[in-house]
Amino acid sequence: MPYKWMALGTVGCAVVSLAFAFVYPKLTSYVIDEVISNKRLDELPWVMGSLIGAFLLRELFNSLRIIINNHFEQNVIYDMRQQVYDKLQHLPVGYFDQRASGDLMTRVIEDVNNVERVLIDGTEQGTVAVLSVVGVLFFLFAMNPTLAWVALIPMPVLIGGALAYTLTAHRRYRRQREAASAMNALLMDNLQGIRQIKAFCRQKHEDRRFADRSHALRLGSLGIMKAWAIYSPTMAFATSLGTGLVLWIGGRMVIQDVMSVGDLVGFVLFLGLFYEPIGRLHSLNQMMQGARAAGERVFDILDADPERPDRTQILKTPVKGDVVYKKVVFQYGEDRTVLHDIDLHARSGEMIALVGPTGAGKSSIVNLLPAFYELTSGTITIDGQDVSQLDLASLRREISVVSQEPFLFNGTVRENIAYGNLDAGEEDLIRAAQAANCHDFIERLPEGYDSHVGERGVKLSVGEKQRISIARALLKDAPILILDEATASVDTATERLIQEALERLLKGRTSFVIAHRLSTIRKADQILVLKEGNIIERGAHDDLIKQDGVYARLTRIQNTTFIEEGFEKISDSR
Q: I need a surface site. Which of 78, 249, 383, 525 has the fewest CB within 10 A?
């Protein structure tokens, strides 16, 4: 709709071009019957001039149609791709948990193109083809009704073949699109995991996996081609049969002096203009089936429910960071309860440490606070405001997240730090880098802050990436912090630098820390010990030692640095 004038211009140019194409058979008929038969050389120049002029105008309007259509096409592709990408940005995290990144990339890039082809090319060519069929059929009946009816003899075969192809094609195209998506998903997975593939010498194994996916795509494509190889020649034969019948009956008419040679030649030329758009409609039918399969995958994204589209309540600022969980229950699906009646109160500026074995529900608790997932029941409030009723942008602006495995975008160091606050000035950015203990190593990089970090920060060490992610969080300066402790995979010297940076980051903020090291836990205002989605112990370090429960046993295990290891040892001792 935003480009309706381009659409009308495209179709209009095509119709005018078609109209000039009608001049050719009419003038040809006139030349044969009037000019050549009567040897009227004086008329030949203007007739030929008119014919050349008609050809010129036909191609001129065709060229104009192509130019307008290309702009129309690219604008629609741009808009549709932007809509799909924008929708992806507003879908809940759970949507991405169920789909491979390569599959989504295929939908945004390839499937959008396939849908666009039928929306633009299909609409234009289909409209012009139908108008051509109707217009030429009018001329055919005006010229010779008998031959016009003969020309329509193949129509039942053409219509029946089109129906048979259409009713069976969708399944083939769907299989082919799914196979292409599966292959792309595996390719993306392998490119991201290339180091693991090489480390385990699994190149041949991955070659076989990729060959299997590629083979499935080959079979899907061959299925489409096989059906088209039968359908297209059959339809072409039917139209050729119609032309043969017209020449047969028309030849008899010429021999019997019922019809002139020029009229027969003109009729046959018009007949070509009648069958050609029918053949184009068959090609459009093939395009339509491919677009239909791609469209299902595109509209799976566009029709998906976004995150909280109707929440307009804004989190009031300045945010103090008083966070309360009350009887919070969270389920993955209908039959897997991850959290059971979680109650906690994090007062402004407090540090809450979450400890427990893998799968205890630590990540689920912190993921509910910025509403990455919606809780099943219960309430979470920030400064007394129900998180479930808040506009997501206003909520997430007040929360910073630093994960154990930091993610850096494939850009420069400057761009990755500035992601925390795109409006920050150079001085603020450098100040955040200094506070995160990463300014010195950044300065030593070949291009300093303008050095590229590579995909997912591959050009930097784990500790360097972690400090950049801390600088990004410092630059955001949010009052609430979620920290999946960042020192679990680094050496002692790097750990000290990160710990210093974290102390600056934690200062004055309400923080939820998924603790992997005992050294972090001792500093917490509250320690929550989780097991199977329940809080089994809570309190400060000294209080929990006095309780002599699970936490106290953890601290008594000698030479245990990581919490998960301690839980494993407790389980083994039992």
A: 78
